[in-house]
């Protein structure tokens, strides 16, 4: 009889990339100090092809995407939410009805989907490439997706220049080859458009420079495979080899006719558009040679999921850098952070994973709530919200940025809750306690003194909150007491209630 030995099973994590052309899932096991890829899954969904002229996804593309996620969920049975990260890119960034897709996905897929900004996508792509691609020195990474192209210059694991441009093989295919016809004129127009899209960043990238250029994802992989089939075993992409592929393409009159050795059948419909984008990129940035990397966005997601690869540090560093850039009073921000965290802990004593994440966002919002002061004191909460919503914040997805912006937008003055944006990953009832905690923390620290606050007891029942201070403290702090009375009126107008009292020594 064989005796079984019990050993701790290695942690398994999964990352999913919801691209404009294909959905990808990669599952990895954490082994020692590294990741061991144990399975990869890919489905060609063509989500981007479903965007109409008003940027609405049609029902067919939504259905294809949801069905793919239902299949992926079968592989993920038993995975805890913290071990799965899902990032949606260009198409769901653009789609006016993205919420329809996300709501339908919830019915078959039990993991949160993050819609990430273009520059955040670029950073994660670079992270994936830098962890898996050998070589030293600065590198340029180019990733041509279905709806957007990301370009990054970095060194080691740090990205220095990031850009995301609205050009991808699916969108360019619809724009320049809508009838499926292939001609030198249409191809040149696509190529010139790509070159023009990069005009605004070309000089800064060329000035920064790089030692090697790396391409990632499906378009560049397909070009590499065609080059290898032509007899170039290294698979490197050069200007001359690209020109040779273009010559071959021009022999066909429709996209459906394209047949090139090494070209996978699934890439045929969007191959010409992808080649045009890469050729325009080579021209704009004066690239001579590019190598291919198997890693991309999903690998970047994997490396950030495990704490030892310091995802938390990235977001903390981002918040710290922003506070420094806008000359935030860090001592005051730290006092607000402490009080806000204390109040939130009292109203959410058993928060769980999702509310723990919200608590962290509250802490960063408290740190950054005054970034708008650098613009003007008048309405600075609105300035702060605009900065946090529209600045590139490495490590944060779009929804997290919206939470930060919302907390700072509503941290003072009237509570116009009808202006609250619609969230996908969170519900308003989860955001309201954060707003209340931050507002009270700001009022309690409005005098910006080093004097410690007393122990304040919070009793919270949904929208009805009560603060209890030590006996006599409010009478000794009449200005703050008056500010709390004003705050009560703001709450009342919003349909909330705030009760202020002191402990009764006779009890």
Features:
5-stranded mixed β-sheet; Hypothetical protein af1432; Nucleotidyltransferase, domain 5; 507 residues; HD/PDEase_dom; 3 domains; 6-stranded mixed β-sheet; membrane; 19 helices; disordered N terminus; cell membrane; alpha/beta; exopolyphosphatase activity
Characterization of the model:
Belongs to the GppA/Ppx family. GO terms for molecular function: exopolyphosphatase activity. It is a peripheral membrane protein. With 507 residues, the chain is of the alpha/beta class. The protein has three domains: 105 residues, ATPase, nucleotide binding domain (Nucleotidyltransferase, domain 5), CATH 3.30.420; 178 residues, Exopolyphosphatase. Domain 2 (Nucleotidyltransferase, domain 5, 2-Layer Sandwich), CATH 3.30.420; 193 residues, Hypothetical protein af1432 (Orthogonal Bundle). Helix content is 47%, strand content 17%. It is built from 19 helices and 14 strands. The chain has a six-stranded mixed β-sheet with strand order 8-7-6-9-11-10, with helices on both faces. It has a five-stranded mixed β-sheet with strand order 3-2-1-4-5, sandwiched between helices. A hairpin with a 4-residue loop joins strand 6 and strand 7. Helix 6 crosses helix 10 and helix 17 packs antiparallel against helix 19. The longest helix is centred in the middle third of the chain and has 18 residues. The termini are far apart. The N terminus is likely disordered.
